[in-house]
Write a structure and sequence with these properties.
Layout: E1 16-17, E2 23-27, E3 30-35, E4 38-46, E5 49-55, E6 81-84, E7 88-92, E8 96-101, E9 106-111, E10 116-117, E11 120-130, E12 132-142, E13 148-151, E14 165-168, E15 185-186, E16 189-194, E17 197-203, E18 209-213, E19 220-225, E20 230-236, H1 240-251, E21 264-266, H2 274-286, E22 293-296, H3 317-326, E23 330-335, E24 339-340, H4 348-355, E25 370-372, E26 375-378, H5 385-394, H6 396-399, E27 405-408, E28 435-436, E29 443-444, H7 445-448, H8 452-467, E30 474-477, E31 480-481, E32 489-491, H9 499-514, E33 520-521, H10 533-543, E34 549-551, H11 567-582, H12 584-597, E35 602-603, E36 622-624, E37 628-630, E38 640-645, E39 649-652, E40 658-660, E41 663-668, E42 676-679, E43 683-686, E44 700-705, E45 710-716, E46 730-739, E47 742-747, E48 751-752, E49 760-765, E50 769-774, E51 780-784
Helix pairs in contact: 5-8, 10-11
């Protein structure tokens, strides 16, 4: 393993500081600064978005075809003013001011009120010996008083990441803990927040990189990379939502998933035979536990060969999946990147990949081998477009049988230097000097390692859109890089059936959401070890909030189906899964919001209350969208918990009791109750309880309204085709306000080209009663006394 592959360095390099700005050249989008041999460049891409690049050699890297960011020239030209003095050069936009100090060269940012943020305290280059020499580039920035740090992609632990060293190098981190550094996802983006000032920073490097957020020096943030060039984007806004909107405008946004993917998923390593799968779905339907998706883990394959079916365990997969579809189930199959090394066994995936030279080779030209589930394996180079197309097309072996989604696993990639189970086996990575990418931009895995899992997910997504051209598919990945949201949903990997993992699941999902990845989840009940009945019940309550809601468990552990924990837990699970299905109109609208603005679906409270310092460290409460707040229970035996209510008026979801915010309350939370609250002025659309998406014609829509002042827009389409891309969608906007003691609900005329099925709408104002009408899409005004 190279020294920098997720490990702390053996020693720090000797840093050479950059001294002074010698001259400048202004261009349409910014300014270049000559610093002797080195060069600094600032590009103004939006009034709140600045790209900073620094090259020790004076030459910047050319843009890669796999770059996750929009090219500079794709942004509209922004006007900015430039002022020069003997001490500094100042760039000013309508939102921020950037000062570049001449002696020594430093970059400093200020908002319009003159408050500083992301201020350089140093800029330098170092030389680290790692077999061959590597240029290491770094900059140091001041951590302001009271500043908190969030995001960083997938991070174990709680919400605020200040005080940590955070490495970006995709790593199989089985048995991760609160102290784990490098993880499955490598997303070098963070958001810094203090009252009235916040900013985001995206470190635009796919090489090994690291943030030191006050670990070495409590008042200093360090960015460093082995890429030989410093390249980062600063995004300013006092509103976290605008930071995420700008960041996802830069790196891309998710597309709308099928509605069934928002339902409940049931998984285990493994439901390893047709008989077991049929027994599972029978139990789910007989017990009236709603479920849309069954996941098949590695044992559906023939000897762990990707794109095959085990003929003994699954003798007729097409009939099985057809029968499941008739009962409302979709099937998602796992796919790993390792292709079994079988030169003389007529395994077409291996034979064709070898013949067309699709597999990764070492620098000496020999095909690289590692050990995974099938034993000795070879690995496709997903950085090549022709390889991605080949891999995506191979999925027809699954989709022809009726598979509706692909679960990409082990794609950090995870592999050993000897067969799994052998004593002394070590995790390995591709050699960092192994060639990677298409011929016209050939590079090495030092540059592309972090992209491997995401490019596999891209191959999967693009292949499924071709193979299932009339239906949206579901893609899930364990590993990824910034921008992974364009191709796939993400889960947090191999967690444990321990209360600590339940506690850190929602902060982990919030930080992923703040990093642009909205469709996220954690394995409900924990993957490894055995969940207790109480833990599973509490985890199912929290899991109802996960954008991706899946229960999973590991081989040789207790099963994690809801009925395995006794009738009380089964009923609790049923209640919260049913609530999930009733909330689907609301949740689906949040997914639409994620596709249009990048907004996370599950959010920390500071996302909407950034100037309330009490929210800055609050990790154990979350918002589902802007209207629903939940306070799960994270410890055994707890039946009461403290809940913080931000400013405004809140209503208890279960009882309707009203509370005035900016205060703490003691919430009663017996085992069957997760405290939930609805913000005043909110409109929550609710559908009927159903066993799977599409089971029932949606002939009734209930709108739960919390008295107050607010506005909300419901998004709708058919939920499964791509026709929404051609305009087959509709929106309905609801406005709520008070007139004395009356609550008024104004329903605007439906907009868009899609017409929902004929239905009755029931408007329920909490504490005021309800009214109903037949929905014809016209405007209405309802008054509740």
């Amino acid at each position: 393993m190279p020294e920098f592959a997720g490990e702390l360095p053996i020693r720090e390099p000797a840093w050479n500081a950059i001294t002074s700005v010698e001259n400048i050249q202004r261009h349409q989008r910014g300014i270049n600064f000559d610093c002797g041999v080195s060069r600094l460049s600032l590009s103004v891409l939006a009034p709140n978005l600045i790209r900073v690049r620094f090259s020790p050699t004076g030459e910047f890297r050319s843009r890669r075809s796999w770059a996750v960011t929009l090219a500079d020239e794709e942004w509209a030209v922004v006007s900015f003013d430039v002022q020069e003095t003997d001490k500094e050069i100042t760039i000013e936009t309508e939102k921020i001011r950037v000062c570049v100090q001449r002696y020594p060269c430093r970059v400093q940012f200020f908002d319009k009120a003159g408050r500083p943020f992301a201020q350089d305290t140093g800029l330098g280059i170092g030389w680290r010996q790692m077999g061959e020499g590597k240029n290491q580039v770094a900059c140091w920035k001041r951590i302001e008083a009271e500043e908190k740090y969030y995001g960083f992609g997938e991070r174990a632990g709680l919400l605020n990441q200040k005080g940590k060293r955070l490495t970006h190098w995709t790593t199989d981190c089985l048995d991760y803990t609160m102290l784990t550094d490098a993880m499955y996802q490598a997303i070098p983006f963070f958001m810094a927040l203090r009252s009235e000032v916040s900013y985001g920073l995206f470190f635009n490097t796919t090489f090994w990189s690291r943030f030191d957020v006050g670990a070495d020096e409590t008042d200093t943030l360090r960015l460093e990379t082995l890429g030989g060039e410093l390249d980062y984007y600063i995004i300013y806004s006092p509103e976290p939502a605008e930071i995420v909107r700008t960041y996802t405008g830069l790196t891309g946004r998710m597309s709308l998933p099928p509605q069934w993917a928002l339902g409940y998923h049931q998984c285990r390593w493994s439901y390893d035979s047709e008989t077991e799968v049929r027994q599972l779905v029978y139990q789910l339907r007989q017990r009236r536990i709603p479920c849309d998706v069954i996941h098949l883990d590695v044992d559906y394959m023939f000897g762990y060969r990707v794109f095959t079916w085990n003929p003994r365990r699954f003798p007729d997969p097409q009939k099985l999946l057809g029968d499941l579809a008739a009962d409302g189930f979709k099937v998602v199959t796992i796919v790993d990147p390792g292709v079994k090394f079988e030169p003389q066994s007529d395994y077409s995936v291996y034979d064709e990949g070898l013949e067309k030279d699709y597999f990764i080779r070492k620098a000496n030209g020999k095909v690289f081998h590692g050990y995974v589930w099938p034993g000795r394996a070879v690995f496709p180079d997903f950085l090549r477009p022709d390889v991605r197309q080949w891999w995506g097309d191979l999925q027809h072996n699954l989709t022809d049988m009726g598979v509706a989604g692909i679960w990409n696993d082990m794609n950090e990639p995870a592999m050993n230097d000897r067969p799994f189970g052998d004593e002394g086996g070590q995790k390995i990575f591709f050699p960092t000097d192994a060639p990677s990418g298409p011929g016209d931009e050939r590079t090495t895995y030092a540059e592309t390692h972090n992209l491997y899992g995401m490019m596999m997910a891209r191959a999967s997504r693009e292949g499924l859109e071709k193979l299932r051209e009339r239906s949206r598919s579901f893609v899930l990945t364990r590993s990824g890089y910034a921008g992974v949201q364009r191709w796939s949903a993400v889960w947090t990997g191999d967690n444990h059936s321990l209360w600590e993992y339940l506690e850190m699941s929602l902060p982990m999902l919030c930080n992923l959401g703040l990093s642009g990845v909205a469709f996220v989840g954690a394995d409900i009940g924990g993957f490894a070890s055995d969940a207790t009945p109480e833990l599973f019940a509490r985890w199912m309550q929290a899991g109802m909030l996960y954008p991706f809601m899946r229960a999973h468990s590991m081989i040789n552990t207790k099963r994690h189906e809801p009925w395995e924990f006794g009738p009380q837990v089964e009923e609790i699970c049923r209640q919260y899964i049913e609530l999930r299905y009733r909330l689907l109109p609301y949740i689906y609208t949040l997914f639409w919001e994620a596709t249009t603005t990048g907004a996370p679906i599950v959010r920390p409270l500071f996302y909407h209350y950034p100037n309330d310092s009490k929210t800055h460290e609050l990790y154990d409460q979350v918002l589902l969208g802007s209207s629903l707040m939940a306070a799960p229970v994270y410890r055994p035996g707890v039946e009461n918990r403290i809940v913080y209510l931000p400013e405004g008026t809140w209503y208890d979801w279960w009882t309707g009791e009203r509370y005035e915010g900016s205060t703490h309350i003691l919430a009663h939370a017996p085992i069957e109750t997760m405290p939930m609250y609805i913000r005043a002025g909110s409109v929550i659309p609710l559908g009927p309880v159903m066993q799977y998406v599409g089971e029932l014609p949606i002939n009734e829509l209930r709108l739960r309204v919390a008295p107050g002042t607010g506005e909300w827009t419901l998004y709708e389409d058919d939920g499964h085709t791509f026709e929404y891309r051609q305009g087959a969608w509709s929106t309905t906007t609801y406005r709520v306000y008070l007139e004395g003691t009356q609550v008024v609900v104004d329903i605007q005329a439906r907009q868009g080209q899609w017409t929902p099925p004929q239905r009755r709408v029931i408007v329920e104002v909490m504490g005021k009663g309800e009214q109903e009408f037949n929905d014809d899409g016209s405007a209405r005004r309802l008054v509740f006394s």
